Amino acid sequence: MRILVRITTILLVFSILYTAEIFDEKLLVDVLIAETEQFEISSTTPLQFREVNSPVSIEIKGQVQIQLIDSAYHEAIELTFSTSDKNMQGESDRKLEWNNNHLVFVKDETTKRESFLSEDQLNSFLEKNINVISRRNIKIFEGQICLTQNSTKQYLDLPVEVVSASPITISITGFNYTGSLFISIENEKMELINRLDFEEYLCGVVPNEIGTNSPEEAMKAQAVAARTIAVSNLLSRKHPHSHYDLCASTHCQVYKGLYNQNSITKKSVRETSGEILLFNNKPAVAVYHSCCGGRTEDSSIVWGGSKIPYLTSKTDAKRDFISPLNTNSKAENWIKSNKSVNCKDNKESSSWEKKAYSWTKTIQTKDIEEKLSIKGLKNITIQERGNSGRVIKMTVKHSRGTLTLTGEYKIRSSLGNLPSGLFYIKSKHPFQIVGKGSGHGVGMCQTGAINLAREKQNYKKILNHYYEGCNIAKMKIKQEHQ
Ligand SMILES: [Zn+2]
Ligand SMILES: [Zn+2]
């Protein structure tokens, strides 16, 4: 059975999702929260441990220590009755339908077709119908875990699903999670995968991306942007060949379970439920950053690729009064100026907002030399800037020649992880660097969104300012079988 996800408002048909599933019209996602050989789990209500591939189930109250004891895995073969025998080895991109009847496990660790054919259990099958398939394409993995509580040990075969009526606490992250926990195995480690409703997942993302004290309308704008990114991550299969859809780090979006969730963060997700940003009827690239510093940046300047209409540089203010800051003098004058823009700090700003808007950093010459593996650093010259003023090309003169650095992220990290690429060098040896903004500068400026919300703008207006030309649509999840 093939499950398709359709966003009815935009008629986007998702092809088969690797692990995401639909249940009761709700999209369930699998989020990798940790990889480990050992961890502790607890809940205020009894924990149910269930072997996914058998009826074995045990219930334990209190805290349990879980250890991986056997990471041996078995290769799999697929038996088909229609294809020729041309697929001797696994095809890495093959999409498999999950069907127990088509999979047989043999004990030897081998991918040789001949070895499979020698197995007794396969004698009854026609030779040409046997294909060896890559293990990583299958949602079956093997290994055993040991559950220890007060010196009592119990063993279970992976994969294992853990559920409880109350949130589950995982020791290695220190966070509590709703939904269920799947323990699978990959590269001789347990993968801890939180399966939960998509909207609940977003509740665990929003507070970690914009903070817990932001005004409600800014939080709602963040919820829509985060939902749009998550949908794009699912559609593009950001983690192909994995047992999960999304990870819990910045690679996808930061997810920390119930940590930092409060009534406003939850409300912001609930009241924008299902809403995503569309451009040309497709989910938009709804990227965001802490603070643009005055002008947002073109996505093509930061990540290359062609220009995206709604991600082009613009003044972050009601009036477009800042011309492109793409020369050193324009950028320097802007950084020194005190003019007001949406993200400029004010009396209501929190300390992180203030720090994000303007900053000064001092970096020792030897630290830059170490970072760039050079000796005798003489001078740094800024060669090129994007329209937001972010430095995208810089030369470093040293005793043995000149080094050219390109890309705003590389430049920021070479100078001791500067908050942003919008800076000028005030003095050298040590290097005193003065700048504005925090992050790449593309898309929504979070500190700007926060100030717009303080000025009573609603989230739709805020999103319209930062993603001009996109519209908001309500996503509906439908289940279809093929
Ligand atoms: Zn990821
Ligand atoms: Zn801004």
Helical fraction equals: 10-25%
Counted by DSSP, the helix tally is 12
Average pLDDT metric: 84
Bound molecules: zinc ion
pLDDT < 50 stretches: 1-18, 71-113, 119-141
Which structural category do the helix and sheet elements fall into? alpha+beta
What overall geometry do the principal axes of the alpha carbons give? globular
Distance between the termini: 6 Å
Number of strands: 31
Radius of gyration: 26 Å
Largest β-sheet summary: 8 strands, mixed
Beta strand %: 25-35%
Keywords:
482 residues, alpha+beta, eight-stranded mixed beta sheet, six-stranded antiparallel beta sheet, 31 strands, 31% strand, globular, binds zinc ion
Could you explain how this protein is built, in words?
This protein is α+β, with helices and mostly antiparallel strands and 482 residues long. Among the domains are: 76-137, no CATH class; 295-442, no CATH class. Helices cover 20% and strands 31% of the residues. The protein is built from twelve helices and 31 strands. The strands form eight sheets. Strands 3, 4, 6, 7, 14, 17, 18 and 19 form an eight-stranded mixed sheet that branches. A six-stranded antiparallel sheet has the order 13-12-8-5-15-16, with no helix packed on it. A three-stranded antiparallel sheet has the order 2-1-31, with no helix packed on it. A hairpin with a 5-residue loop joins β24 and β25. It starts with a strand and ends with a strand. Mean pLDDT is 84; it is low at 1-18, 71-113 and 119-141. The structure holds zinc ion (2 copies). Residues 291-292, 316, 342-343, 445, 448 line the site of one zinc ion (ZN).
